Amino acid sequence: MQLAVIILTHNEEDNIGACVKSAAFADEILVIDDRSTDRTREIAEASGARVVVRPLAGDFAGQRNFARVQTDADWVLYLDADERVTEETGREMRAVMAAGTRAVYAVERVNVAFGQRMYYGGHRPDYPRRFFPRDAVRWEGLVHERVVSDLPVKRLRGSLLHYTYTDWGRYFQKFNQYTTLMAARRHAEGKRISFAKILLDPPFSFFRFYILQRGFLEGRLGFILSVFHGFYTMVKYVKLYYLQSRE
Q1: How far apart are CA 205 and CA 165, in angstroms?
Q2: Helix, strand, coil percentages for the chain (3-state, nearest 5)
Q3: The domain 3-165 belongs to what CATH superfamily?
Q4: Separation in Å, CA 119 to CA 123, 144, 209, 218
Q5: Global pTM?
Q6: Portion of the chain with pLDDT greater than 70, in percent
Q7: Fewer CB near the terminus (10 Å): N or C of the chain?
Q8: Chain centroid to CA 235: how far?
Q9: Pairing mode, if any, of strands 3-9 and 129-133?
């Protein structure tokens, strides 16, 4: 049984080396690069990865589906460049493959924001489905893409570390990118937005992250990120509102 780790990149020179190193337990490391203009490709190849260049064009699911047919490995693990696989998780994946237990495996992802591991609020651990037999899945969705498969879903005991934000410039770059993509996705789906939702939903988003999900236990950073999540909700709605107003 062969395992390929697949990493999507765009200008990830600060992350790609450590990401590839954490995936050294795999038989193949495949990087699908969205025409990076920095040293991402050079660092990835120097670290032992094979790089294929393909423009993303805002279609994350399409990029992941393209990556899946660029390898002949039996199993695949999808990583983002800012994620790291722990040694224990790598060994567990090898054991699952050896046992031949075909399933879609979710793995705990612990978010590390500005150097702080987050266990509460909107950045508490989540369980993305990333590890599975290559021939048994497909990806759907423009942004926040998801795995579609007929296999049962199981959960690994191990975890990934997700270095989601390391500086505020990068944070706001992603903020702008994802609010634009979410607005475009909902507009394409025919979703409509009222100005009342722009007024009412952002405060509730803050309340949900900070109170209901106990973001206050993360201290000052928990408060700051909860406020920005409320603003994120407002910005994506505003972008959608003005997309529909053009009609």
Answers
A1: 20
A2: 45, 25, 30
A3: Spore Coat Polysaccharide Biosynthesis Protein SpsA; Chain A (3.90.550.10)
A4: 7, 21, 12, 8
A5: 0.83
A6: 99
A7: C
A8: 20
A9: unpaired
DSSP symbol at 209? I
How far is Cα 83 from Cα 102, in angstroms, rounded to an integer? 24
Q: Residues spanned by CATH 3.90.550.10 within the chain?
A: 3-165
Residue closest to 138 by CA, chosen among 155, 151, 122: 151
Q: What is the mean pLDDT of the segment spanning 231-239?
A: 96
CA–CA dist 169, 25 (Å, integer): 33
Of 90, 75, 89, 79, whose CA–CA distance to 12 is shortest?
79
Residues in the chain: 247
Closest CA to 149 of 103, 91, 180, 184: 103
Q: Which helix (H) or strand (E) holds 28?
A: strand 28-33
Angstrom distance (rounded) from CA 65 to CA 76: 12
> What is residue 143's predicted lDDT score, i.e. its pLDDT?
65
